[in-house]
Amino acid sequence: MFYYAREAVMAEAFGKAEDLLDKFEIVVTEKLHEKEVVARQTQWWVEQNLNDTVEIGNYIKQVLAHEPNIVGIAAAFKPGFYPDRQDKDYMIYYHRDKGRVLRSNLFADESYLHQPWYEAPMTHNKMMWSEPYEDYRTDGEPIITYSIPLVKDDEVVGVYGVDISIYWLSDTVMALRPLPNMQGAMVTRSGAFVIHPDTSLLRPRAMFRLMEAHPEKEYSAAAYKILSAEKGISFLNIYGSTHLVAYGPIEEKQYELTLFCPENEIMGHYNSMIPLMVVVVILSLLAIMVFCWVFIHRELHPLRELESSARQIKSGHYYTPIKTSKRIDEVGSLTNSFIAMRRSIRKHLAYIANNKQKLAEQHKQLTIAQERIREAKKVKGAFLQNMSDQMIAPVNEISRLVTEVREHHSEMSQEQIVELSNQVDDKTRTVTELLAKVLEVSTKKQEDEA
Known about the structure:
Layout: H1 2-48, H2 53-66, E1 70-77, E2 90-97, E3 100-104, H3 116-124, E4 128-129, E5 137-138, E6 141-152, E7 155-165, H4 166-175, E8 183-188, E9 193-195, H5 206-213, H6 217-227, E10 232-238, E11 241-249, E12 255-262, H7 263-266, H8 268-314, H9 330-408, H10 414-449
Antiparallel strand pairs: 1-2, 1-7, 2-3, 4-6, 5-6, 6-7, 8-9, 8-12, 10-11, 11-12
């Protein structure tokens, strides 16, 4: 929007600059045309009375009396046009000097024969404005001359020239400029200013002196375009501020018009639009940020719920309800997959809890059985210890009886020996019974352990 608005306002500003340039051209052309009309009307009378030089001189004086803005008029003839004149060249020239009208035989204190205002019309047989020359002054002011060929019998016999002050022309045109802050200039193809707000530049080659004073590329490029009779618009820093410079040639004249207008005046709408566009851009960015925040917040809401559920699952809360998503995008698929995963986790946790309960019960039973085994072992140990204690006395008795028989068998009678043998048999039977019980208990213990 800013780009197209900028293009539209820029085009409008350029159009305004071209319109001001056209208006300025109209003002300049009108002032030049006024003097051209006076020159053509008076030249006709002079051309009709070429044989009466006295009347021509009087007529030129009358014209100067009625046209205060004309500073000089000359009727210059080719050498030998008047055979009765002793001088080969002859000119009737009246000009102003400090308020008086004087006649001179020389133009700028030298012969007119090789001066451009005379030589060019004589050569090309056409009306034209001359170049301003610093040495050509009338009443102390630099002048330009509108020259018209004088024709007799289809032959150019002289030149009729009307001089105007370029100071007067510059001041008059600048007073009629379309905008008060606008400045204008008119320059010839040779780089001489005819109209310029700075009268010190109304001299030959002033354009090139400006180019030397401002060697920047933009100045040189614009100056060469102006001198090449191109038409265009540029931006230059003039008088310490940026100016829009519009330039173009005057049709059918050897002059170029240049218009200088402050950028703020010609680009006022564009410059006032820049802060407006900045405000619009800022508001647009804020609107985009708000929209993006709302959109992202809405899009991330299911993810935040999933993140909260993940924290709850991490904390051990597996039964917090989560709404099933109706969205068909990746977020909806992720939400439903997360719900399915949580259901699967709860199912596995229930299965693990059930097995844990079973294992706890089995562990309890095993603990009880182990305790019973431990108690049985204690009982069996006590029993075996008791049996062992009971076997000690019979074994000791058998050992005593065997020792007594071995030591005193020669002294004993048969009956004593038989009695002692019976006692040994009884004790041995007792030990054998005890050993049988111990073996029976040991065998059972091994079977229980197996």
